[in-house]
Every structure is written in structure tokens, then in C-alpha cells.
Write a structure and sequence with these properties.
The chain has 412 residues and is an alpha+beta fold. It has one domain: Cytochrome p450. 48% of the residues lie in helices and 8% in strands. The strands form 4 sheets. A 5-stranded mixed β-sheet has the order 3-4-10-7-5, with helices on both faces. The protein has a 3-stranded antiparallel β-sheet with strand order 6-12-11. Strands 1-2 form a two-stranded antiparallel sheet. 44% of the residues are buried. It binds protoporphyrin IX containing FE (HEM). Protoporphyrin IX containing FE binds next to helix 4, helix 11 and helix 15. This is Putative cytochrome P450. Belongs to the cytochrome P450 family. Keywords: Heme, Iron, Metal-binding, Monooxygenase, Oxidoreductase.
Length: 412
């Protein structure tokens, strides 16, 4: 944002505003402004909604270095924390401690309880269920009228069914949690709307924890409830962990599925690689490249420095806000040659689409399995799948924490 001096003759402050807009002529690219900033310095200050000027990290090496640095904290209650919006700031005291807002030993304590259900072994055991659910959703879509909306037919229900089943939440609640999850992370939600959505979901989860404390079943929320019953954590913490998994576990994968299908349809030479192979490693690599290229976690992960840090010729002072921009860093040309090209065969292991360091995504093995199965299956069942609208009719979720499309009309 450019502001002028009192005499309006001289630019006094050229600190750019964040988040920045994407150029809709190239909807998969991170905002041009983040590229320009990285060229100036991958560690640069930006202005955010409350007028504060945290550091924005747009380079892959710098981002990785900071995300594993113990002088960087996710403690959102610290003065100077660069909150996502006014609602997140206003309601900070409402949110119990969890993996999302704790550091060090406290974080490991919560994280250990959550990772059990998402190990590679547990996720591999789920693959037949993921495949069966995917096949059924695709078959139902193909049996219905054309065009169909890929978001409501496949992209959103698949991860929602899976996470509901794992957590032990009846899928009949999906409208409730899908709507409130979106409201609780809407950039433009008022503090009241944010609070209302959070409180509704928190109460729902708290009641479920209480129910499962009395009568545990074989699912993740029961596991948290048993720990709460045994005094290892309290019921509010158990509810908050369940809520974190529920929110993180469906909206993200849903956006990746719909945006991924769209990107593949727009890049037929790359789509051919998926269509022509039975090699699981090729599919797995394709998913990683789509994770890099699409940058759905695009509004900056929030952190705060607890000590001074020297990086990239800058001094991040203790108490300064830090925003790490995963999407933009995954288009850093110092790390990826021609980052603007979707290249499903590139070596992409170093991407940070699932984050990096101690807070790296807990559900990434599950998300990967869902994405591998969907991208492989949809084009087997519907080899002629095509977008059923003009490119400029597609609406992108620029206002949401996770990028994606609101709807994707497809035909076959
Ligand atoms: C394509 C889908 C997904 C993407 C792109 C994604 C992305 C991410 C990213 C970037 C982070 C790091 C946040 C940070 O450092 O601030 C993260 C953390 C997390 N994700 Fe995911 N995620 C996905 C799917 C899932 C699923 C399916 C689950 C659960 C079932 C899940 C649960 C979590 C949790 C609990 C954390 C917090 C970890 C911590 O703070 O220690 N995610 N995710």
C-alpha cells in the first residue's frame, strides 16, 4: 500500500499490503506482488489488516530455515502476533491450547496424541475404503445429469466422509461442519461471525467428547475422550484437537481435488502422464508436483519471533510478526526451475505444500492417499472428462484461507 507524505509530493512508505491479489488471467500463480517482493528480498516487511508490519517470507530456503527455528513461535496470544483477521485476534482467548498454537514440549505432547491415526501404516490400511468411496462417488456423479459440479459430487464429500469416519462423527452432520468450518476461516468474517461459527463447532465437538467419555467407540475422538477421562488432557483440549482435525481434514483436500482436476484438464500433456501410467510412483510424484504448483495454503502461516533473528540481511526482532508464504515459496525459481510450469515428472521432494518443521501437516499421508486415488480414478472412469464452462466463469476462493474453486462444472 502506498501512502503519501502530508504534502503528498513524496512516497513515504512503500510497504506492500498483504494478502495480495492474484492475477486472474493466470489463476494458479501466486500473486505477482509476492514474486516482486522475493526478488527484492525474500524476507521483507508487509502491512496487514491492523496496520502492523510483520515480515513476509517468500523464499523457500528462508522459509525452511525459519520454520525449523525454535526462536519462532505459533503462540497466538503473544503481543504482536500477526493474526489472519480481526475475528481471529478478538477470539484468541476462546481457543484452547492445541497443536496449532503451542510450541516445544507442549506442542509435542498434543501432536503425539494426534499422529497415531495418520501414520503411513494406518493410512495404507485405509486405502481400500478410500478407493471404494471414491469409486462410488464417481459412479454416482456419472449416473447423474450433465454437467455435474465436481466440488459437491466428489471433491468435498470424499475427504468429509473419510474424516467423519475416522473421527467417529456421523456424516449426517456434514452440512453443519462444512458451512461453519468455512465461516470460521473466512477472511472477511466479522469477529461475531467468526465467534459464532467457532462456538457452534466447538460445542458440537465438546458434547461429542463428553458422550464418548461415557461410551467410547473405536475412533479418534474416543481416543481423545479416553485421555480426557484419564486426566491426561481436559475435555476442552480434546474437543479442540478433534475440531482441528475436522477442519484441517476436509476443506484442504477438497480444494486440492477440484483445483488439481482443473489444472490437469488445462494441461492435457501432463494429464496424459496420469492417464497412461499404472506406476504408483509416477502418480505419487504427480500429486507432489500438484501440491507445489497449486499452492492452496496461500494466505501465509502466522508466527512470531521470540528472539532476534538475522536472516537474508534483515533483523527480525523479538516480538515481530512473521508470515511464511508457502504458495509463493513453492514458486521460488532458486529452488524450482521454471516454477510456473506444471511438470509432473520433476523432482519435487523439497516442496512445502504440507508445511515444514515441527508443525508440518499431521494428515499429509492421508491427504496424499486421497489425492493419488482420486486423480488416478476420475480419469479411468471418465476419460473424456472436460470443464463445462468458459474459463472466466470459474470462481476462485481468493477470500478463503485455502485457495480453490467454489464450483467446477464438468461434463464427460
Ligand atoms: C491437501 C490437503 C492438505 C494440505 C494442503 C494441508 C496443509 C497443511 C499445512 C501447510 C500445515 C502446516 C501449517 C503451519 O505450519 O502453520 C498443516 C498442518 C496441519 N494439518 Fe494439514 N493439510 C492437508 C490435509 C490435512 C488432513 C487430511 C488433516 C487431518 C486429517 C490435516 C491436519 C493437520 C493438522 C492437525 C495440522 C497442524 C499440525 C501442527 O501444528 O503440528 N491436514 N497442514
Amino acid at each position: 500500500m502506498l501512502r503519501m507524505t502530508e504534502t503528498a509530493t513524496e512516497v513515504q512508505n512503500d510497504t506492500p499490503y498483504f494478502p495480495m491479489d492474484r492475477d486472474m488471467r493466470c489463476p494458479f500463480a501466486p500473486p505477482e506482488g509476492t514474486r516482486l517482493l522475493r526478488e527484492k528480498n525474500p524476507v521483507s516487511q508487509v502491512e496487514i489488516w491492523d496496520g502492523s508490519t510483520p515480515w513476509l517470507i517468500t523464499g523457500l530456503a528462508e522459509l525452511k530455515s525459519l520454520l525449523k527455528d525454535s526462536r519462532i513461535s505459533v503462540d497466538e496470544s503473544r503481543e504482536g502476533f500477526p493474526h489472519w483477521n480481526e475475528g481471529m485476534k478478538a477470539n484468541v482467548a476462546m481457543r484452547p491450547k492445541s497443536v496449532f498454537n503451542s510450541d516445544g514440549k507442549e506442542h509435542s505432547h498434543f501432536r503425539r496424541m494426534m499422529t497415531k491415526a495418520f501414520t503411513p501404516k494406518r493410512v495404507n490400511a485405509l486405502r481400500p475404503f478410500l478407493q471404494e468411496t471414491t469409486d462410488k462417488l464417481i459412479a454416482d456423479m456419472l449416473a447423474g445429469p450433465k454437467p455435474a459440479d465436481l466440488v459437491t459430487s466428489l471433491a468435498l464429500p470424499l475427504p468429509s466422509i473419510v474424516i467423519s469416519q475416522m473421527l467417529g462423527i456421523g456424516y449426517e452432520h456434514h452440512d453443519f461442519f462444512q458451512e461453519n468450518a468455512v465461516k470460521s476461516v473466512d477472511r472477511y468474517a466479522t469477529p461475531e461471525q467468526n465467534m459464532e461459527a467457532f462456538a457452534a463447532m466447538f460445542m458440537f465437538m465438546y458434547e461429542l467428547v463428553e458422550k464418548k467419555m461415557a461410551e467410547p467407540t473405536d475412533d479418534v475422538i474416543s481416543d481423545f475422550a479416553i485421555r480426557a477421562r484419564d486426566g491426561e488432557i481436559d475435555a476442552a483440549e480434546a474437543a479442540q484437537m478433534g475440531l482441528g482435525l475436522l477442519i484441517a481434514g476436509h476443506e484442504t483436500s477438497a480444494n486440492m481435488i477440484s483445483l488439481g482436476v482443473l489444472a490437469l484438464l488445462q494441461n492435457p500433456d501432463q494429464l496424459a502422464i496420469i492417464k497412461d501410467t499404472d506406476d504408483e510412483d509416477v502418480i505419487a510424484n504427480a500429486v507432489e508436483e500438484l501440491m507445489r504448483y497449486l499452492g492452496i495454503i496461500h494466505n501465509g502461516q502466522r508466527r512470531i519471533a521470540v528472539e532476534d533473528i538475522e536472516i537474508s540481511g534483515q533483523t527480525i526482532k523479538a516480538g515481530d510478526g512473521v508470515i511464511v508464504e508457502l504458495a509463493s515459496s513453492n514458486w521460488d525459481p532458486r529452488a524450482f526451475e521454471n516454477p510456473q510450469t506444471l511438470d509432473l515428472r520433476r523432482n519435487v521432494v523439497q516442496h512445502t505444500g504440507f508445511g515444514f518443521g515441527p508443525h508440518q501437516c499431521i494428515g499429509m499421508m492421508l491427504a496424499r492417499a486421497e489425492l493419488q486415488i482420486v486423480f488416478k480414478s476420475i480419469f479411468r472412469h471418465a476419460p473424456d472428462l472436460a470443464v463445462a464452462c468458459a474459463p472466466d466463469e470459474i470462481e476462485y476462493k481468493s477470500d478463503r484461507l485455502a485457495y480453490g474453486v467454489y464450483a467446477l462444472p464438468v461434463t464427460w
